[in-house]
Specification:
- The protein has 9 helices and 16 strands.
- Helix content is 41%, strand content 23%.
- The protein has one domain (28-296): Carbamate kinase (3-Layer(aba) Sandwich), CATH 3.40.1160.
- The protein has 299 residues and is α/β, with parallel strands linked by helices.
- It has an 8-stranded mixed beta sheet with strand order 5-10-2-1-13-15-16-14, with helices on both faces.
- The structure holds adenosine-5'-diphosphate and N-acetyl-L-glutamyl 5-phosphate.
- Adenosine-5'-diphosphate (ADP) binds at residues 36, 38, 89, 200, 219-221, 224-225, 248-253, 256.
- It is found in: Cytoplasm.
- Belongs to the acetylglutamate kinase family. ArgB subfamily.
- InterPro entries: AceGlu_kinase-like_sf (IPR036393), AcgluKinase_fam (IPR004662), ArgB (IPR037528), Asp/Glu/Uridylate_kinase (IPR001048), Glu/AcGlu_kinase (IPR001057), NAGK-C (IPR041727).
- Pfam families: AA_kinase.
């Protein structure tokens, strides 16, 4: 072992020693982790992510992974010559787009993630919201303001769904059998219609239904930032409302934080927005005194 290997090993051991009380505190609890499509782009980071998930399982925590894949769906649609548009961060989904989204999310990405988890020594079980009737979806209804008249008008997003009911039996069964559920954000309606669901929304609904100790949203920023770009480390739902009103948060951060508020108000203990680009970001968040990212708790 050379000098720099030794230093790295000592640093890892120090993180693990610091982590011991946290392992005990969370043993037997569920962590729902949303892994976004952007974060998956870097194979080294993906390997670290899979190792962290398997480590959580090894120390007695039950990780449940919900993955995205927006950029990957976009690439496939482009190859097929299909145009994609978004309303409030949601992909307008016609029948062909729904088919492509299911193929990319439930087929390619889901199985790739299962592969990484298995390579890291875990037992991944790849499913979507359809399996075991995990998520029954209903169509999302949205309105947008017409800039000319300032009047709210209904906009049809097609087959974009939201979880209306969550039956966690398949997750409970997989966890009891020592597996790590890896969930694609696709659901079916009562009538069997396939719905494309925003991955943050899917993760929040599952975290709420499981009464998870944590909902973790791994994204491409250090957390929620103030107007000066400084990290806001603790937020409550009223803080989030204020940040929204004064324009501090925008874009994709709005649905993300809506999901966090919904989850913590519906039974998840706390949600965290953190930087999925940072190596071992989850371990730093959970198992160090300093933490990382933005923690959101109900008041
Ligand atoms: N106050 C804020 N703090 C951090 N990010 C913000 C804020 N307001 C808007 N954002 C945007 O939200 C983005 C994260 O949301 P999104 O792009 O939907 O992430 P993901 O693809 O990981 O789901 C950031 O990259 C940033 O551009
Ligand atoms: C309705 C809707 O927008 N669904 C998303 C599902 C994937 C997703 O949310 O992936 P990320 O987390 O990587 O963005 C989409 O079609 O892109």
């Amino acid at each position: 072992m050379n000098g720099s290997d030794e230093t790295a090993t000592i640093a890892k051991a120090q993180v693990l020693i610091e982590a011991l009380p946290y392992f005990q505190r969370y043993a037997g609890r569920t962590f729902v982790v949303k892994y976004g499509g952007h974060a998956m782009g870097d194979p080294a980071a993906a390997r670290d992510f899979a190792e962290d998930i398997v480590l959580l399982k090894a120390v007695g925590i039950n990780p449940v992974v919900v993955h995205g894949g927006g950029p990957q769906i976009g690439t496939m649609l482009k190859k097929l010559g299909v145009e994609s548009t978004f309303v409030d961060g949601l992909r307008v989904t016609d029948a062909e787009t729904a088919q492509v989204a299911e193929m990319v999310l439930s087929g390619a990405i889901n199985k790739e993630l299962v592969g990484w988890i298995n390579q890291a020594g875990g037992k991944g079980l790849g499913i979507s919201g359809k399996d075991g009737r995990l998520v029954t979806a209903t169509k999302v209804q949205r309105t947008v303001k017409d800039p000319a008249s300032n009047i709210e008008q209904a906009v049809d997003l097609g087959f974009v769904g939201q979880p209306a009911a969550v039956d966690t039996t398949i997750i409970d069964t997989a966890v009891a059998a020592g597996m790590i559920p890896i969930i694609a954000p696709i659901g079916a309606g009562e009538d069997g219609q396939t719905y494309n669901i925003n991955a943050d929304t899917m993760a929040g609904a599952i975290a709420a239904a499981l009464g998870a100790a944590r909902l973790l949203l791994l994204t491409d920023v250090p957390g929620v930032l103030d107007k000066q770009g400084e990290l806001l480390s603790d937020l409550t739902p009223p803080d989030i409302e204020r940040l929204r009103e004064d324009g501090t948060i925008g874009g994709g951060m709005i649905p993300k934080l809506e999901t966090c508020v919904h989850a913590v108000e519906a039974g998840c203990e706390a949600a965290v927005v953190l930087d999925g680009r940072v190596s071992h970001a989850m371990l730093l968040e959970f198992f160090t005194v300093r933490g990382a990212g933005t923690l959101i708790r109900a008041e």
